[in-house]
Design goal:
heterodimer, A: mainly alpha, 12 helices, B: alpha/beta, six-stranded mixed β-sheet, three-stranded antiparallel β-sheet, globular
Chain lengths: 255, 248
């Protein structure tokens, strides 16, 4: 399959999955927006009176930006692995490229993230956030988080077929990830030490920090900060791709 | 030579050992079950299928017909040996695999045609022909899940026949694709299978419908006892199959 046709098939399958998901819900796309808004409201109400958090400028938008990026990552990876296992019939009975099944889900989640970002921008205008030229950096963050989710999803799909417990392990990992990702706190409040090292090593941390800087605070962003934020996703993408390529020929035997 | 299988062997782990919880793996670490049991489905297959062939794949349930087609499609990797295919593949061993039942017929034509190798413009110009062939002209905007099983089969098969007519692939692999369709549609497909394949196209079709095989496929392969037992004319292979079935 050449790249042109691959892109067309990806478009058709993404469109079909997106519309099918929409059809099975009364509120459709609104669910994707309600989830982060409700979660932000809860976190904001819980933490707004804590001194360290209340000093954060536009704390509600700060949480919302962290949350939609974190949600994008966990939703993409979890749904990718679930849908991959459900695609048994497609894998066993057609020659559709298997990576397309992963890419399709990432595209759907990517579309949702784009809509959520538009919501953040609208709220930002309403709340008087500092939009500036730094916003131009956001597409880089978007590409970075797509790469991170794609790499993790490829790796997960490559292994979940062989290790039936991996889905449970992954859902536990996602809970832990919520606390080691700066969703409702700024990394600086953690101080130095092991916890800070873990947060700094988490590729989501760099991307969320960059997203906040570009969408919310409009400060100066150094090229080194961008490169560092993209390094983690690049490594995850390469490792995930290699894992998927290695196990892919055996997947039909085990699925 | 469009399809060549050289010394191809395929085995599977017994189903109980494919995927199971980690604690059961640990419990069986020291047990006698530890040694992986493998079931050899096809053993040392040597076969060459020339361009322009329409080949019926015949065999009992569980003989390995679907495994044979999946090996040719590249879905399964052989344990040993080589499968060579000269040309593009169109493989839908389960009609409707990959379709979106909760969307209308119109959307599914574009989706399924894309999976079968057709582009947007091609599909747009083929849409009336596909709907006419499947006799679903007045159902274009009906959700596929609201169609009967037979109507769904007609839709998906019509798209694959159109892909064959447009030469979107050189090798077509089918498995029991005419289940649940009415006599009129069956005759249309039989006619298409005789008329459409070009000289450089190959159609391999696994089925238990012997009269269909006799009418549409001049040659046949008998799969059994872990390999290709015979490759010859369909009448010859069917005779041999009947004999094997009678011997039990």
């Amino acid at each position: 399959m050449n790249w042109r046709h691959f892109s067309y098939v990806l478009y058709q399958t993404t469109r079909a999955s997106f519309l099918s998901e929409e059809k099975n819900s009364s509120l459709g796309l609104i669910w994707h927006l309600l989830n982060p808004i409700l979660m932000t409201a809860v976190l904001f109400m819980v933490f707004r009176n804590v001194d360290r958090f209340s000093q954060v400028e536009h704390y509600e938008l700060f949480i919302l930006i962290g949350l939609i990026h974190y949600n994008f990552f966990i939703n993409s990876t979890t749904r990718c692995s679930l849908n991959f296992l459900r695609s048994r019939s497609l894998i066993l009975n057609t020659t559709v490229p298997r990576q397309l099944l992963v890419l399709r889900q990432i595209c759907i989640e990517g579309l949702t993230l784009m809509i959520e970002i538009l919501l953040v921008l609208l709220l930002g205008i309403f709340m008087g956030a500092n939009f500036g030229p730094a916003m131009l950096v956001y597409p880089v963050v978007f590409v970075g988080i797509l790469a991170l989710a794609l790499g993790a999803s490829l790796g997960l799909c490559a292994l979940v077929v062989f290790l039936s417990d991996l889905s449970y392990v992954w859902s536990l990992f996602c809970r832990v990830l919520f606390f080691i990702t700066p969703v409702f706190y700024a990394p600086k409040i953690v101080g130095e030490g092991f916890a800070r090292v873990v947060i700094d090593l988490n590729p989501l941390s760099g991307l969320i920090a960059l997203a906040r800087e570009s969408l919310l605070y409009g400060g100066r962003i150094e090229p080194s900060q961008v490169s560092l934020a993209l390094l983690g996703p690049a490594i995850v993408l390469v490792v995930g791709w290699l894992l998927f390529r290695t196990t892919s020929p055996k997947i039909p035997d085990y699925i | 030579m469009a399809i060549r299988l050289s010394s191809v062997t395929k085995s599977f782990m017994t189903s109980s050992r494919r995927r199971r919880p980690l604690y059961r793996e640990l419990m069986s670490l020291h047990s006698r079950q530890r040694a992986a049991k493998r079931n050899v489905v096809l053993n040392n297959i040597q076969l060459e299928i020339p361009d322009g062939s329409r080949v019926a794949v015949i065999g009992r349930n569980g003989a390995g017909k679907s495994t044979f087609l999946r090996l040719i499609a590249g879905i399964y990797q052989p344990d040993s040996g080589v499968v060579d295919i000269d040309g593009r593949l169109c493989c839908f061993l389960e009609p409707g695999a990959g379709a979106a039942a909760s969307l209308p017929v119109h959307d599914n034509v574009f989706l399924y045609a894309a999976l079968a190798g057709m582009g947007y413009q091609e599909t747009r110009s083929s849409l009336p022909r596909i709907l006419e062939f499947s006799s679903l002209e007045d159902q274009e905007f009906t959700w596929v899940e609201h169609l009967s099983f037979g109507m769904q089969q007609r839709l998906f098969m019509s798209i694959l026949i159109e892909a064959m007519r447009l030469k979107r692939a050189e090798v077509f692999l089918f498995d029991e694709f005419l289940m649940g369709v009415d006599k009129a549609f069956r005759e249309k497909v039989e006619d298409a299978l005789i008329r459409f394949p070009a000289r450089n196209q190959i159609v391999l079709h696994a089925s238990h419908d012997h009269s269909l095989m006799l009418r549409t496929c001049p040659t046949a392969i008998l799969i059994g006892d872990g390999g290709v037992r015979h490759y010859g004319t369909t009448a010859e292979v069917l005779d041999m199959y009947e004999q094997v079935a009678a011997d039990g």
